[in-house]
Amino acid sequence: MTPIDRLKGIMVRLRDPDGGCPWDVEQTFATIAPYTLEEAYEVADAIDRGDFDDLKSELGDLLFQVVFHARMAEERGLFAFDDVATAIADKLERRHPHVFGDEAAKGDGASQKLRWEDIKAAERASKAQHGVLDDVPVGLPALHRAAKLTKRAARVGFDWPSTDEVFAKLEEEIGELKAEIASGDAAKAAEEMGDLLFVVANLARKLGVEPEDALRSANAKFVRRFQFIEAELAKQGRAPDQSDLAEMDALWDAAKAAERR
């Protein structure tokens, strides 16, 4: 028995109404989807930390999510795990004609990336998805989706020529946000906040930066520096709520200086 067959067999047992796990039996595509997203993020986190033992475990958790969805589909007569594997294998061969088809060894990485996008556009057309933005998944993290939306629009010429125009738009959106905050209209301020974040995601895309990765890195930096503040205050037998902003700000600057050494 192969490891994947063993895993599929375990899934069958877990989903068996007669003797299986009650929690697993009651799950649906909708209830499992959040766990699928969570496992994908945990894979990314293990990679960021360079923890390859953990990466092996997290990839297993993510694979289990695929097996879980495939089993639920098989129970409903929709498709099975082997159909999922066949679908991705077919797609990869179709999208790599320079490897598996008549275009072998043609072009460099950049030209092949453009060819990939052309092939995906043809696939959208065959699915009657004629809009440029039709298949950008709604379930993506919002910043990542914003970058993908602007990238897709840029392919048909809807894009600023340079980052100068994006910075000008950022200043405009900041001004509009300040105006709505001053007016006291919370709903409009929230809308302007969204517009500002969308432009930031577009700027990241123009710079070749993945906004989710950049924000994840900033989050990690914030945690690291705040933990420095906590550690320094703990040396004096105090906690952050026993300090004040000026002191914590000075410790924050000390954390930054320590990172530069």
TrEMBL record:
<feature type="domain" description="NTP pyrophosphohydrolase MazG-like">
    <location>
        <begin position="166"/>
        <end position="225"/>
    </location>
</feature>
<dbReference type="GO" id="GO:0047429">
    <property type="term" value="F:nucleoside triphosphate diphosphatase activity"/>
</dbReference>
<feature type="domain" description="NTP pyrophosphohydrolase MazG-like">
    <location>
        <begin position="27"/>
        <end position="100"/>
    </location>
</feature>
<dbReference type="InterPro" id="IPR048011">
    <property type="entry name" value="NTP-PPase_MazG-like_C"/>
</dbReference>
<dbReference type="InterPro" id="IPR004518">
    <property type="entry name" value="MazG-like_dom"/>
</dbReference>
<protein>
    <submittedName>
        <fullName>Nucleoside triphosphate pyrophosphohydrolase</fullName>
        <ecNumber>3.6.1.9</ecNumber>
    </submittedName>
</protein>
<dbReference type="InterPro" id="IPR048015">
    <property type="entry name" value="NTP-PPase_MazG-like_N"/>
</dbReference>
<dbReference type="InterPro" id="IPR011551">
    <property type="entry name" value="NTP_PyrPHydrolase_MazG"/>
</dbReference>
<keyword id="KW-0378">Hydrolase</keyword>
<dbReference type="Pfam" id="PF03819">
    <property type="entry name" value="MazG"/>
</dbReference>
